[in-house]
Amino acid sequence: MTKPLPLDTLLGEFSEDYKAWVIQSKKTGQYLVIPDDLFPGRKPIRFFMSETDASRVIDAVLNAKPSLAGAALGPVQVILHDALKRISAEKRSDYADSFVVHSPNEVFEFVRGLQQEKKDPQ
Question: Does the global pTM surpass 0.85?
Protein backbone atom coordinates (compact mmCIF):
# COMPACT_ATOMS: atom_id res chain seq x y z
CA MET A 1 0.00 0.00 0.00
CA THR A 2 1.12 3.54 -0.68
CA LYS A 3 2.44 5.64 2.18
CA PRO A 4 0.70 8.92 3.02
CA LEU A 5 2.26 11.57 0.83
CA PRO A 6 3.07 15.19 1.69
CA LEU A 7 1.00 17.84 -0.04
CA ASP A 8 3.77 19.04 -2.36
CA THR A 9 4.42 15.52 -3.60
CA LEU A 10 0.77 14.85 -4.34
CA LEU A 11 0.30 18.17 -6.11
CA GLY A 12 3.23 17.30 -8.35
CA GLU A 13 1.91 13.83 -9.16
CA PHE A 14 -1.54 14.86 -10.43
CA SER A 15 -2.72 17.49 -12.88
CA GLU A 16 -4.51 20.55 -11.52
CA ASP A 17 -7.85 19.37 -12.91
CA TYR A 18 -7.54 15.70 -11.81
CA LYS A 19 -10.81 14.49 -10.29
CA ALA A 20 -10.80 12.00 -7.46
CA TRP A 21 -13.35 10.61 -5.03
CA VAL A 22 -13.28 11.02 -1.27
CA ILE A 23 -15.56 9.82 1.51
CA GLN A 24 -17.48 12.63 3.15
CA SER A 25 -20.02 12.84 5.94
CA LYS A 26 -23.24 14.35 4.61
CA LYS A 27 -23.99 15.53 8.15
CA THR A 28 -20.76 17.35 9.02
CA GLY A 29 -19.19 17.89 5.60
CA GLN A 30 -15.91 16.47 6.88
CA TYR A 31 -13.91 13.94 4.94
CA LEU A 32 -13.52 10.56 6.60
CA VAL A 33 -10.14 9.90 8.21
CA ILE A 34 -9.32 6.19 8.31
CA PRO A 35 -6.37 5.25 10.53
CA ASP A 36 -4.27 2.31 9.42
CA ASP A 37 -1.64 0.19 11.17
CA LEU A 38 0.60 0.75 8.13
CA PHE A 39 0.78 4.43 9.10
CA PRO A 40 1.17 4.40 12.91
CA GLY A 41 0.12 7.65 14.52
CA ARG A 42 -1.06 9.15 11.22
CA LYS A 43 -4.56 10.33 10.32
CA PRO A 44 -4.79 10.07 6.53
CA ILE A 45 -7.64 11.20 4.33
CA ARG A 46 -8.00 8.69 1.53
CA PHE A 47 -8.80 9.60 -2.05
CA PHE A 48 -9.88 7.15 -4.72
CA MET A 49 -9.67 7.01 -8.49
CA SER A 50 -13.32 5.96 -8.91
CA GLU A 51 -16.67 6.30 -7.21
CA THR A 52 -16.91 2.50 -7.14
CA ASP A 53 -13.70 2.24 -5.11
CA ALA A 54 -14.88 4.88 -2.64
CA SER A 55 -18.22 3.08 -2.28
CA ARG A 56 -16.51 -0.25 -1.65
CA VAL A 57 -14.49 1.32 1.15
CA ILE A 58 -17.61 2.91 2.65
CA ASP A 59 -19.31 -0.50 2.69
CA ALA A 60 -16.29 -2.11 4.36
CA VAL A 61 -15.98 0.71 6.92
CA LEU A 62 -19.68 0.50 7.83
CA ASN A 63 -19.44 -3.27 8.11
CA ALA A 64 -16.41 -2.96 10.40
CA LYS A 65 -17.82 -0.02 12.39
CA PRO A 66 -21.64 0.01 12.24
CA SER A 67 -21.64 2.97 14.65
CA LEU A 68 -20.56 5.19 11.71
CA ALA A 69 -23.88 4.63 9.92
CA GLY A 70 -25.24 7.80 11.51
CA ALA A 71 -22.53 9.88 9.83
CA ALA A 72 -24.27 9.43 6.46
CA LEU A 73 -21.05 8.71 4.59
CA GLY A 74 -21.02 9.08 0.84
CA PRO A 75 -18.57 9.27 -2.05
CA VAL A 76 -17.97 12.79 -3.33
CA GLN A 77 -16.08 13.76 -6.47
CA VAL A 78 -13.57 16.56 -5.95
CA ILE A 79 -10.86 18.30 -7.88
CA LEU A 80 -7.91 16.76 -6.08
CA HIS A 81 -5.65 19.84 -6.00
CA ASP A 82 -8.41 22.06 -4.63
CA ALA A 83 -9.43 19.54 -1.96
CA LEU A 84 -5.85 18.95 -0.82
CA LYS A 85 -5.09 22.66 -0.57
CA ARG A 86 -8.33 23.34 1.31
CA ILE A 87 -7.71 20.52 3.81
CA SER A 88 -4.08 21.56 4.34
CA ALA A 89 -5.13 25.13 5.05
CA GLU A 90 -7.42 24.04 7.90
CA LYS A 91 -4.44 23.41 10.22
CA ARG A 92 -6.44 21.25 12.61
CA SER A 93 -4.05 18.89 14.34
CA ASP A 94 -6.98 16.83 15.63
CA TYR A 95 -8.21 16.13 12.11
CA ALA A 96 -6.07 14.90 9.21
CA ASP A 97 -2.32 15.03 8.82
CA SER A 98 -1.70 13.21 5.54
CA PHE A 99 -3.22 12.05 2.27
CA VAL A 100 -3.32 8.81 0.32
CA VAL A 101 -4.57 8.38 -3.25
CA HIS A 102 -5.48 4.73 -3.71
CA SER A 103 -5.21 2.79 -6.94
CA PRO A 104 -7.88 0.12 -7.53
CA ASN A 105 -5.45 -2.63 -6.43
CA GLU A 106 -4.75 -0.80 -3.19
CA VAL A 107 -8.49 -0.45 -2.56
CA PHE A 108 -8.89 -4.21 -2.91
CA GLU A 109 -6.13 -4.80 -0.34
CA PHE A 110 -7.45 -2.10 1.98
CA VAL A 111 -11.01 -3.48 1.92
CA ARG A 112 -9.69 -6.99 2.53
CA GLY A 113 -7.77 -5.64 5.54
CA LEU A 114 -10.89 -4.02 6.98
CA GLN A 115 -12.82 -7.24 6.51
CA GLN A 116 -10.06 -9.18 8.28
CA GLU A 117 -10.12 -6.73 11.21
CA LYS A 118 -13.86 -7.35 11.55
CA LYS A 119 -13.27 -11.12 11.68
CA ASP A 120 -10.29 -10.94 14.05
CA PRO A 121 -10.83 -7.98 16.43
CA GLN A 122 -7.84 -7.34 18.64
Answer: no
